[in-house]
Amino acid sequence: MPTKTTALDRELARFVKSVYATTPAVKKIFDDAGVQPSRIKHVADLECVPVTTKDRLVEMQKESPPFGGFRNTKAKKLKHIFLSPGPLYEPHGAEKALVKTAGAVFRIAGFKRGDVAINTLSYHLVPAGLLLDAGLQAAGATVVPSGVGNTELQVKMMIDLKVTGYAGAPSFLMTIIKKAEEMGIDVKKSFTLHHTLFTAEPYPPSLRAQFEGTFGLKTLNVYATAELGFLAHDCSAQQGLHFVDSAVIEVCDPATGAHVKAGEAGQVVVTTFNETYPTIRLGTGDMAVYIDAPCACGRKSPRLMLVGRVGDAVKVRGMFVHPNQLKAAMAKFPAITRAQGIVTRPDNVRDDLTLKVELGQPVADQDKLAQEFSEAVKGLIRVSVDKVEFVPTIAADAKGIVDERKWE
């Protein structure tokens, strides 16, 4: 993991000391681990603090309702209480840190004073809609809290209000555009939309090509969670998601909580400076590959590439491997329809990784394809492939990686 800036180290040390004294759950986590808050002086020092998973957060809320001891006792007034999947109750007050981060990312996306922006994320139960609302305001935009649905009305607002910005899921913006076209509206002439911030779902290259190529929009894709706000964003180079500057983001071994090396996959673990609901080292459950190489866009911040969820990952020869990494390798080989990893330990000493491959079309030189696919997979997962087997079919609902090791 990289060495964070001195300013972030100072903020982290101050924050830990403060919330240890005012947040019962944080104090218990540190005390149970035998860690004094004064020990946390740098981001790297967080490795000695256990990761709190979302499952554990749910358990803690049941043990100590409603917030599991994570409400800061100094936060006397709550403005909202949200309910996220889990279920998890989330107290919100001023949330200055989360709003500051959101505003900064919206500015990166091109939002500014004078913009009229529609916010299509939900405003009820979960904090997503209100966080985007606050971030848009922090960037200077006027917000139209449109939420989802009412597609014809969304089209009318786009035109009547001369909307210049969109915040929400990429698929819903395409739904709005398709509805406008059904209504006989020339989107490129009638819409004044210029920039977008996408979040809440994947943003595939096919959609990016339409939004940026066909419609000439500036788009920014953001990785965020309900509990933690904005965490990372993409750039023009499309070489991963850059960490935001105002949160502590780690990519860690899901089993140990230790930082992984560049190029390795691990769980995204986050500490934000949330004044009301301070969680130190919250495990998101998301798996990502950590990237510290320079980005072509010029930004020096470290990056991550999301690959899936922790529960789907399998550790092979000390490295976590996720099915989506196999899918990423497959994308380079049009002849391959499906692939599946099989992990065994035939000699009870070394893990063996076999790739089963289903072809969608005849291949003249299967040996060459097997070698090239093996190398592509190795480049992504940093684990060599022992064997490639071409099989007639792989079930559509088959697991991407099957662990057949016997732990006896």
Report on this structure.
The protein is built from eleven helices and 20 strands. The chain has helices spanning 6-22, 24-33, 54-63, 96-108, 128-138, 151-160, 170-182, 187-190, 205-214, 323-330, 366-381; strands spanning 52-53, 80-84, 88-92, 116-119, 142-144, 165-168, 195-198, 218-225, 229-233, 241-243, 248-252, 265-271, 282-291, 303-309, 314-316, 319-321, 336-344, 352-359, 387-390, 401-403. By secondary structure, it is of the alpha/beta class. Helix content is 30%, strand content 25%. It has three domains: 1-93 and 244-312, ANL, N-terminal domain (Rossmann fold); 102-226, ANL, N-terminal domain (Rossmann fold); 316-403, ANL, C-terminal domain (GMP Synthetase, Chain A, domain 3). Helix 9 links the parallel strand 7 (195-198) and strand 8. It starts with 5 loop residues before the first helix and ends in a 5-residue tail after the last strand. The longest helix has 17 residues, at 6-22. Helix 4 (96-108) crosses helix 5 (128-138), helix 6 (151-160) packs across helix 7 and helix 10 (323-330) packs across helix 11.
What distance separates the N and C termini? 35 Å
Q: What is the architecture of the largest domain at the second tier of CATH? A: 3-Layer(aba) Sandwich
Mind telling me the CATH superfamily name of the largest domain? ANL, N-terminal domain
Number of domains in the coordinates? 3
Radius of gyration over alpha carbons? 23 Å
Uncertain residue ranges:
none
What's the number of extended β-strand segments? 20
> Please, what is the average pLDDT?
93
Shape: globular
Given the structure, what is the number of helices?
11
What CATH first level of the largest domain would be assigned? Answer: Alpha Beta
Q: Sheet with the most strands?
A: 12 strands, mixed
What portion of residues is helical? 25-40%
Going by helix content, strand content and strand pairing, the class is alpha/beta
**CATH topology group of the largest domain:** Rossmann fold
- What fraction strand? 25-35%
